[in-house]
Amino acid sequence: MNVFCNPFFIDFENEFEIIKNSFTDAIIQANELIRFIERKIKELYNWLKTYAFESLSEEIYFFKELKPKLVSRLIFYKNILKLESNLPIGIKLKKKCFEKSLDKVYLKSRKDKDFYQYYRSRATSKDEQYFIRSNEKSIDNDCHYQINYDIQLCTSHDYKVAMIMADDSLLAHLEDKLEEINNSCNLKHPSLKTNLNWTGNKIDLIEVIYALHHQKVINGGNIDIKDLAVHFGFVFNIDLEENIYRSYVDIKNRKTVKTKFLHHLSENFNTKIIEEEH
Questions:
Q1: What pTM was computed for the model?
Q2: Looking at residue 63, what DSSP letter applies?
Q3: What's the per-residue H, E or C state across 158-200?
Q4: DSSP-derived secondary structure for 241-262
């Protein structure tokens, strides 16, 4: 496998970067990269049709690691093309569009929680079930793409891995776009800096921010969550912008208590009150 795959993926990355850096217009760039990636996927499939894997571990590695890297790029740039082609004019409308796209990414991560957590935790116990080709199609109710899939070229879950990887890239892209808009709107004010420092975990403060935002106790809820995070960041001298959306996904995907810090905060405060009363 390595005899073909190693030079194939090295050449792919080199050509990919050349094409990517040749265009500044996002729509033209996405179109060119989609055509390139589709051509490379066909090359990979032509090889795969004639190759016999030497072991189960080799087949698992290909369908869990290698193939999704390629397919995820195609999914990502198709998403970028759709996003950029339908982007409205005006900063406020663009910001709303990016935030709506982020919400869609979050919802997707909740549709198949079991596999999402399996993949994120780097588990391997079900790899043979998920990443070994079968002579029978195992259709997942949530994966309409599988109806026409080729059992010679696909496993039941390699496309799901590609989707997760593509969503990660899209999430980072959307966060960058929102940060650009926030910077252009002069949301960063050095004068707001204080001597206060948040000494807990960053995700704990993010948990508090989301709780306050959901409760609508700041500006009656009429404030964007990222704007709120920016101001909390200024007050407590901590950068929250890069993590605000991704951390929320992590909070929602916790297996036990979702609001772990708030629960701990409430328990400690109640204990303190009871101690003072006695």
A1: 0.67
A2: I
A3: HHHHHHHHHHHHHHHHHHHHHHHHHHHCCCCCHHHCCCCCCCC
A4: TTTHHHHHHHHHT-SS-TTHHH
